[in-house]
Amino acid sequence: MADLPATFAASPGPARNVLRCLLSTPITVTPDVKDGALSFRFSGHCRYGVLDQTLLARGQMVMTAADEPLTGDLTRRMVGCRVEWWCPRGDSNTRHAV
Description:
The protein is an alpha+beta fold. The protein has a domain at 24-77: Carboxypeptidase Inhibitor, Chain A. The chain is 23% helix and 38% strand. The chain contains three helices and three strands. It has helices at 4-10, 12-22, 53-57; strands spanning 28-34, 37-51, 63-77. It has a three-stranded antiparallel sheet with strand order 1-2-3, with no helix packed on it. Helix 1 (4-10) crosses helix 2. The chain is elongated and about 55 Å long.
């Protein structure tokens, strides 16, 4: 987990693999522009294992699943920005099934 930011910054492929393991639902991303700032609100659910500390103290290693909401905002000032509009990169399947 300590290398997670480095993994995300290194390349999209390994970052997507980590997210596939952690996320139990797709991420919803909503772009918005307020007061000259480009902002993205994201939400989803994250599932991971937790080691039960009470049982561990008794010598038993028991993992339980935790499922928590994952929400947040990313904001970037658009002044001097190379790209001043939202542009999807084709990571999502936007075409309907035929």
